[in-house]
């Protein structure tokens, strides 16, 4: 947990619907400066919809209540007027395929990202250490397919970090990567975030991932927050039925695998 524990993001009572279906129901969330928070929930719980709202991208969802304060900016979700998107929130897509043009060299894509994110034309040398910090080699004349998926994902991360965000959002960061590469990418995120006091919001269906990386965890089910607290506390004493179900299921998988490996060892 970082020493600077000022609240960076404070979302209160966000409710949204898509068509006539209520997708998020009174969702509140707090993220402190520099901490790592996980949102855990099954498919269809409303996690991606929540992320999109935090970034000011609501459609097709229609918010009908909620207030967001982020880094000195405010958004009122009940007002239908055109709102400004919060600045200094960065987002990394789940799959590197969504982030690159396969026919353009990586160097060109890096420069384009710099122009879009900073609004400046000439890329500064300052950006190069960012690549090194994330364990990436110089681009040379490479196209995306010449880099591994883990490297591509870290390059997307470096692009997201160009604008010096205060909050980095990762939506299902490991589902498109194999476990070793996923761990490598998340370690790079954690290291960078700690050094630069960037808060990280990881959205996942994987409670073990939250256990490993998040200071605090929110559990969502059918559009509602059913639990929010310190990850270690939540894992040892979940209060909600759904939280207990998730934690027990996680134990069940670990125990089962443990039994399996000891029976294989005994053969
Ligand atoms: N474009 C859409 N049109 C209609 N319903 C949608 C759309 N996007 C999401 N939903 C509905 O919103 C609910 C929450 O979706 P989502 O936020 O993607 O959940 P999660 O990311 O937790 O899997 C789901 O029931 C889904 O069917
Ligand atoms: Mg999703």
TrEMBL record:
Signal peptide: none annotated. It comes from the Bacteria. Gene3D superfamilies: P-loop containing nucleotide triphosphate hydrolases. Keywords: ATP-binding, Cell membrane, Membrane, Nucleotide-binding, Transport. It holds the Pfam family ABC_tran. InterPro entries: AAA+_ATPase (IPR003593), ABC_Ni/Peptide_Import (IPR050388), ABC_transporter-like_ATP-bd (IPR003439), P-loop_NTPase (IPR027417). It is a peripheral membrane protein. SMART domains: AAA. Residues 9-247 form the ABC transporter domain. It is found in: Cell inner membrane. Its main location: membrane. One of its GO terms (molecular function) is ATP binding. Belongs to the ABC transporter superfamily. This is Dipeptide/oligopeptide/nickel ABC transporter ATP-binding protein.
């Amino acid at each position: 947990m970082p020493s600077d524990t000022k609240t960076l993001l404070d979302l209160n009572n966000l409710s949204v619907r898509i068509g006539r279906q209520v997708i998020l129901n009174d969702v509140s969330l707090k993220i402190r400066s520099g901490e790592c928070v996980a949102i855990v929930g099954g498919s269809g719980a409303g996690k991606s919809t929540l992320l999109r709202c935090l970034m000011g991208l609501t459609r097709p969802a229609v918010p009908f209540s909620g207030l967001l304060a982020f880094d000195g900016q405010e958004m009122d979700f009940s007002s239908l007027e055109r709102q400004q998107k919060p600045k200094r929130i960065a987002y990394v897509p789940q799959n590197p395929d969504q982030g690159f043009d396969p026919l353009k060299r990586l160097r060109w894509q890096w420069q384009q990202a710099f122009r879009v994110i900073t609004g400046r034309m000439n890329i500064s040398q300052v950006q190069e250490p960012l690549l090194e910090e994330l364990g990436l080699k110089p681009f040379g004349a490479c196209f995306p397919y010449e880099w591994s998926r883990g490297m591509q994902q870290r390059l997307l991360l470096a692009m997201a970090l160009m604008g010096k965000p205060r909050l980095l959002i990762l939506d299902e960061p490991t589902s498109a990567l194999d476990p070793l590469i996923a761990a490598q990418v998340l370690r790079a995120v954690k290291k960078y975030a700690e050094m630069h006091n960037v808060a990280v919001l990881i959205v996942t269906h994987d409670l073990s991932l939250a256990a490993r990386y998040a200071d605090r965890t929110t559990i969502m089910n059918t559009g509602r927050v059913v639990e929010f607290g310190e990850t270690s506390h939540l894992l040892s004493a979940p209060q909600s039925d759904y939280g207990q179900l998730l934690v027990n299921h996680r134990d069940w998988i670990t125990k089962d695998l443990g039994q399996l490996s000891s029976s294989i060892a005994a053969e």
